[in-house]
Amino acid sequence: xxxxxxxxxxxxxxxxxxxxxxxxxxxxxxxxxxxxxxxxxxxxxxxxxxxxxxxxxxxxxxxxxxxxxxxxxxxxxxxxxxxxxxxxxxxxxxxxxxxxxxxxxxxxxxxxxxxxxxxxxxxxxxxxxxxxxxxxxxxxxxxxxxxxxxxxxxxxxxxxxxxxxxxxxxxxxxxxxxxxxxxxxxxxxxxxxxxxxxxxxxxxxxxxxxxxxxxxxxxxxxxxxxxxxxxxxxxxxxxxxxxxxxxxxxxx
Length: 252
What we know:
The structure is a single chain. The protein is α+β, with helices and mostly antiparallel strands and 252 residues long. It has a domain at 7-94 and 145-227: Gyrase A, domain 2 (2-Layer Sandwich). Helix content is 40%, strand content 12%. The protein has ten helices and four strands; from the N terminus they run E-H-H-H-E-H-E-H-H-E-H-H-H-H. It has a four-stranded antiparallel β-sheet with strand order 1-2-4-3. The chain is globular, with a radius of gyration of 23 Å. It starts with 6 loop residues before the first strand and ends in a 16-residue tail after the last helix.
């Protein structure tokens, strides 16, 4: 069986996404802000707004959507993918599709792996030939069997997913697929790259400090050395923010 690489394509996305982001941010802070005002801004000014947004409330990113079509991935991968419940999915139905000629993801070089997968596919085909319904025969197929799935997610969801799914601790297929998803987004919106970073790159702290096998962990900050001091200062402080609308926010 040939190793076929996953395919990721974006076939629909929010038009004028950067304008939408800047408007939702400016509309929160600037009385009378209009979408037309935002569209007239210089691109560099919009990027300055975006830079500000990276360090504040993330709700604006929920207004930007991407629809992906993901192919040549295993059912094991999609079982993990759909755990992100802030996205929408439509997956190929194994209940009705004849999968006897489907490929599968090879994750082990041990010949027994391919032997077992091929045996399952062969038995599946025999069952179909005997008149067994596909919805019943599918039960013996391996989770490595290939599938395709359509996914719609907003930029905030993708940003959160990137933190952990690009991590070296994540399952290998998920890392590979999500890298392709990030690449597809950045090809459309280069400015989104800063949002789609792994946790350690974004924050300088390892998301899974107990996973000491990670080759990146030694370069991360150790929060345990300053956590108690931060907690002490937080408990003794009575500071409350008093934000004000900036009438000049649209011009920045």
